[in-house]
Amino acid sequence: MTRPTLVLLLACLIASSSPARADDSHGATELLRHHLLGEPLRARQPAPGERLAAAVAAAAPATLGAHQASRVLPAYAALPPADRAAFDALLARFAGQPAVRDQLLKALAASNGVDDVAWLAGELDGRDPAWIAASTRLTPPGEAGPALRQQFSDSCVPTTAQALRAEYDPVYALRTRQANPDVTGADDHDPMAMNPALAEEQRDVLLRYAGGPAPRASQDGWGIEVTRPLNDVAAFTGLTYRTHRGEPLEDALALIEANLAQGRAVPLVVSRVFAPGEGGGGHAVMATAVRHDEAGAPSFLVFDPLAGEATWFSAEQLRRREMRFAGFDRIAYVLTPG
User: Fold this and answer.
1) Model confidence at 338, in pLDDT bands (50, 70, 90)?
2) Domains of the chain
3) Is residue 72 predicted with pLDDT exceeding 70?
4) Which residues have a Cβ under 8 Å from the Cβ of 218 and sit 6 or more positions away?
5) What pLDDT is attached to residue 71?
6) Contact criterion met (CB below 8 Å) for 269 and 201
7) Which of 47, 138, 186, 329 has its CA 20 to 30 A from that of 86?
8) DSSP state of 274
9) Contact 103/148 with Cβ under 8 angstroms?
10) Distance, CA of 95 to CA of 298 (rounded, Å)
11) pLDDT band at 19, cuts 50/70/90?
């Protein structure tokens, strides 16, 4: 027996007596059969955690921004083993439908249970990507157009909180759309006439914080402080907000731009000459996206709940106070996480 043959036999004995590692899809026995018999190696199958990380990396940034992408793996790790297996199966099933897959990741990041994620998957299965993008938010996905509308005269803050949650929670957004005939419309004289489920939710938030619900055509209502309703949905958004004065304006614009670039929506309070609390009144709106022109100057997509519209404004337009919502044209406060 020659020395090379002896070495080969020893290698075979060692390999056959040692079980292949569980995380090695090319086990020792398979490698030996490949080298000795010429059998092809099976393609290595990624572990579930690797598959999830790859899906997050491949997700469209417009759907899963940096902030929410950072929440997917911790949410997955917190699932019971059976739920992780169920989510893995959903990812595998919708690997060929990236628009659906991205929404499943987004739903998991928003603290939804696997049953709710599976419901969402069934609702989105086979749908056109444009329909999916529009139906899983309450504001337009990165474009100007109709959006969620407040159902009461002074429910801008509750409506902004609804839109904020929907930015991150596609389960909530789609169910809200399904529960209401037209979230972009409102009856000016009877808040419960057109979208009763939407109106009930806004009314409850107003009453919780001592607001005064009144029809849109009335002047008898009164609004509420903005921060607490936004932070009530922090479990879904992962964002806890605090306020900054809107002056100096350049600092405010820099805050807005930096947060939007990381996928964090930025609520704003707009006013006239004086800040809210100083006699000027105010209105809650929210910046949801940023884009830049060829020179690098930013523009911001701003959602107005009173009009039920999202509109693009350049930084220069904001400097010239050309943004006007409910008669207000000045950024009084910027709300940012942290």
Assistant:
1) confident
2) 48-135 (no CATH), 145-337 (3.90.70)
3) yes
4) 153
5) 98
6) no
7) 138
8) S
9) no
10) 35
11) very low
